[in-house]
């Protein structure tokens, strides 16, 4: 089994979320809900996040409800939030920004 990173302290999580304004802490996970311009755009966003997750070997919980996609991140093996979750949240934010630009909403 690969090394499991240590869970972050409450202060470290708060500091990390300071740079991730669209994310919030709830039920031991960091969460963000995105409203995609279309259902297919939301599914494509999920596909892109899944590709990143496979590369990181770190998989988020994802809930799709029509155009609304919710991502929830925690490191289950560490029983908390780790640097991997904050890193993946930053990557997801970048993918969401690209989705918005690709849709012409700029």
Automatic annotation (TrEMBL):
KW Nucleotide-binding (keyword) present: no
Lyase among keywords: yes
The reaction(s) this protein catalyses: (4aS,6R)-4a-hydroxy-L-erythro-5,6,7,8-tetrahydrobiopterin = (6R)-L-erythro-6,7-dihydrobiopterin + H2O
Gene Ontology terms describing biological process: tetrahydrobiopterin biosynthetic process
Pfam families in the record: Pterin_4a
SUPFAM superfamilies, per the entry: PCD-like (SSF55248)
Sample GO molecular function, one term: 4-alpha-hydroxytetrahydrobiopterin dehydratase activity
Name this polypeptide is given: Putative pterin-4-alpha-carbinolamine dehydratase
Membership in a protein family: Belongs to the pterin-4-alpha-carbinolamine dehydratase family.
Key words of the record: Lyase
Top enzyme category: lyase
This enzyme's EC code(s): 4.2.1.96
InterPro entries with a match to the protein in the record: PCD_sf, Pterin_deHydtase
């Amino acid at each position: 089994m690969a090394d499991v990173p240590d869970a972050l302290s409450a202060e470290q999580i708060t500091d990390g979320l300071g740079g991730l304004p669209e994310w919030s802490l709830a039920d031991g996970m960091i969460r963000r809900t995105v409203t995609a311009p279309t259902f297919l755009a939301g599914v494509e966003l999920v596909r892109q996040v899944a590709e990143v997750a496979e590369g990181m070997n770190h998989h988020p919980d994802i809930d799709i409800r029509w155009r609304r996609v919710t991502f929830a991140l925690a490191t289950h093996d560490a029983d908390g939030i780790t640097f991997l979750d904050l890193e993946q949240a930053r990557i997801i934010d970048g993918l969401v920004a690209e989705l918005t630009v690709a849709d012409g909403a700029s």
